[in-house]
């Protein structure tokens, strides 16, 4: 068996010990005689699995007691509608900070439900920055302020938590949740699809302040009503059971690594290896402003784009896959989430140097 270094933006690499544990437990989970996939979500075994996953997630992120942790479905794209339908609470408008493709998707969907105010946009920079907080034109009457903490496609990440006064802050953290500690209490709601930095596709995590619940849009489907989901311990309908189980194993693995402070150090070190190298060469170019560079998704371009295909082919031959950039931006993108070992980044940088020596 050979495993590659998988730089996919999502669904993305999982920690190998997690996959091994899941493989061992595949046919018989803890003497139950069943695979987790075969369990009733109302049975005592799965209830214990889900409760442990929630407890571990709460511990990792130090989630305050007055926040609900919800295991949902539909991904972050569904949340782009589910969030306004839950959190608009009869108010008229939402403030958005536009930092790229994922912000724009959130904005477009929210327009179906609310008056959208783009309080700041990085469009003029070609989406290579986060607009400085001082430039945001927030509306104090807004239902909430929405940010995308890490733009997975553009590789732009917040390295600060914005203060937004008394208005709840909502973040799409799909591609950087659990990559570093965050102060959950500064947010009204955090949501994330699991398939970037947590586990299998199909699970969506929502962490929401309980004071925001209970005023849903009248047409909000019950299965997406945060209060209904919370009141039923995320089992109002059948949750994505296997994905919750794998997420729980990932949470346990994160604890064993030293929790989120250790993940931050690990992710900073990986990102520094790659960005520091990109600074030393003109053969490759990193488009994002230095203080907004993502530790999770590192886009870069070969100066001579006619070499792109050869670069990707050589990388694949050397055991590195999924380095092609998103179709909307071109070039390359290395996604280096929690599960990417530093050895993978070292191998990539060595390959990039070697490729430059041959073609530069
Ligand atoms: C991947 C991603 C999404 C889309 O998630 P789906 O699971 O496809 O709905 C949304 N926002 C961000 C920041 C992402 O990285």
How would you describe what is shown here?
With 360 residues, this protein is an alpha/beta fold. It folds into 2 domains: 16-256, Type I PLP-dependent aspartate aminotransferase-like (Major domain) (Aspartate Aminotransferase, domain 2), CATH 3.40.640.10; 259-359, Aspartate Aminotransferase, domain 1. Helices cover 34% and strands 16% of the residues. The protein has 9 helices and 14 strands. It has helices at residues 16-24, 44-61, 75-87, 101-110, 226-231, 241-257, 259-279, 308-317, 342-359, and strands at residues 5-6, 67-72, 93-98, 115-121, 145-148, 150-151, 156-157, 169-172, 189-193, 204-209, 284-285, 297-302, 320-321, 332-335. The strands form 4 sheets. Strands 2-10-9-8-5-3-4 form a 7-stranded mixed beta sheet, with helices on both faces. Strands 11-12-14 form a 3-stranded antiparallel beta sheet, covered by helices on one side. α1 packs across α6 and α7 runs parallel beside α9 (342-359). It is globular. The relative contact order is 0.16. Pyridoxal-5'-phosphate binds next to α3.
């Amino acid at each position: 068996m050979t495993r590659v270094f998988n730089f996919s933006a999502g669904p993305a690499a999982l920690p190998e010990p997690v996959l091994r544990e899941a493989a061992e437990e595949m046919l018989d989970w803890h003497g139950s005689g069943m695979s987790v996939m075969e369990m009733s979500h109302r049975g005592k075994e799965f209830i214990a699995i889900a409760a442990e996953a929630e407890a571990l997630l709460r511990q990792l992120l130090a989630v305050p007691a007055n926040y609900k942790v919800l295991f949902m479905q539909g991904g972050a794209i569904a949340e782009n509608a589910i969030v306004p339908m839950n959190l608009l609470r009869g108010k008229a408008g939402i403030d958005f900070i536009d930092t790229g493709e994922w912000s724009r998707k959130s904005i477009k969907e929210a327009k179906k439900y609310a008056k959208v105010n783009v309080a700041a946009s990085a469009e003029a920079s070609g989406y290579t920055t986060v607009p400085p907080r001082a430039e945001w034109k927030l509306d104090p009457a807004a239902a909430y302020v929405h940010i995308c903490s890490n733009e997975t496609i553009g590789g732009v990440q917040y390295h600060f938590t914005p203060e937004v006064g008394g208005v709840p802050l909502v973040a799409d953290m799909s591609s950087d949740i659990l990559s570093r500690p965050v102060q959950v209490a500064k947010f009204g709601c955090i949501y994330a699809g699991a398939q970037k930095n947590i586990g299998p596709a199909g699970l969506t995590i929502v962490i929401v302040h309980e004071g925001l619940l209970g005023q849903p849009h009248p047409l909000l489907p019950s299965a997406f009503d945060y209060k209904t989901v919370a009141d039923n311990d995320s089992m109002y309908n059948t949750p994505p059971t296997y994905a919750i189980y794998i997420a729980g194993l990932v949470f346990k693995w994160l604890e064993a690594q030293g929790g989120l402070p250790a993940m931050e150090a690990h992710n900073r070190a990986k990102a520094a290896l790659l960005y520091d190298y990109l600074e030393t060469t003109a053969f490759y170019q990193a488009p994002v402003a230095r203080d907004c560079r993502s530790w999770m998704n590192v886009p870069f371009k070969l100066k001579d784009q006619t070499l792109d295909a050869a670069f990707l082919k050589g990388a694949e031959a050397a055991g590195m896959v999924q380095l092609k950039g998103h179709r909307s931006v071109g070039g390359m993108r290395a996604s280096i989430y929690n599960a990417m070992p530093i050895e993978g980044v070292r191998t990539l940088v060595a390959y990039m140097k070697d490729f430059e020596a041959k073609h530069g």
